[in-house]
Amino acid sequence: MDIPPLAGKIAALSLSALPVSYALNHVSALSHPLWVALMSALILGLLFVAVYSLSHGEISYDPLYAVFAVFAFTSVVDLIIALQEDGYVVGFMDFYTKEGEPYLRTAHGVFICYWDGTVHYLLYLAMAGAICRRKRYRNFGLYWLGSFGMSILVFLTGNILGKYSSEIRPAFFLTIPYLLVPCWAGVRVFSQPRAPTYCTANTVQEEQRKGLLQRPADLALVVYLILAGFFTLFRGLVVLDCPTDSCFVYIYQYEPYLRDPVAYPKVQMLMYMFYVLPFCGLAAYALTFPGCSWLPDWALVFAGAIGQAQFSHMGASMHLRTPFTYRVPEDTWGCFFVCNLLYALGPHLLAYRCLQWPAFFHQPPPSGPIALHKKQH
Fold this sequence. Notes:
The chain is mostly helical. The chain has 16 helices and no strands.
């Protein structure tokens, strides 16, 4: 997978978030939630106009260039918020976290801001750079799609259902485009042609003749997917208040953060159970039986989703903004860290395997009279 050069123009434009946020933080009129929402919408609108006027050619080639440019700006803002909430910088985004979206001050909010300000930011620059040079960015786009979708679904649902539901301000409705844009972007990313794999028909046939026991790496991934599926189901039952002793012990001694009334961890475990659990079963099937050409794409999507989710979940479980009673106990920290790290690492290994050796997932070449006729002509 080729890594495209980063978009310098967007990087420079996104860094304007630093002086803009600092200036707005000292405007006294922004102490009212409605003014915060209106000013935020105005800045995003002006930013879009600036991007359109400076990069008309790139937007004509691919409209997602404008999306990545605007989102890169918001990623820098999110990184500023995270650094400010952890005390590394001061005087930038106090007005927004107090009057705009106070739930960003939670441990979960801080860590999704860190992820957005680093991983998403680099993805935006890489995808925008690929558009500038008319290169493919499908794999980056699929990973971003899963990561961004998981982040926004858990965050918005937790805001509505958790203890911050009474703190929803007008700025909350600015997140509506964050739900609509990924749907449109996802259609465009999936419609892009896949990168050529250069697998010959003989290579495909030879690879697909091998049984699972002849492919030790795939066998290990299948075992991982089965164990991850059970772990996903177990944690889903835990947050649904399963009365068994094992669930009781786990939620109090290993992951008490699942009881936090902010609701983000409960929503996250339910997202895992309803979406990741079926994927584990389908992926294990695709690694066992050849020709499942859908797996490489969806492995990237779920790698992004689980990577983002586990980063936020693990970080929030140990962050100082999480009340002490809901943090991971010191004596079970090692078990918690290893289990959750493996849960995050597995989908990335699966995606890497699918991208590096895709022959097993190709559609089987035609055989019989049709193939013979093609060979003769």
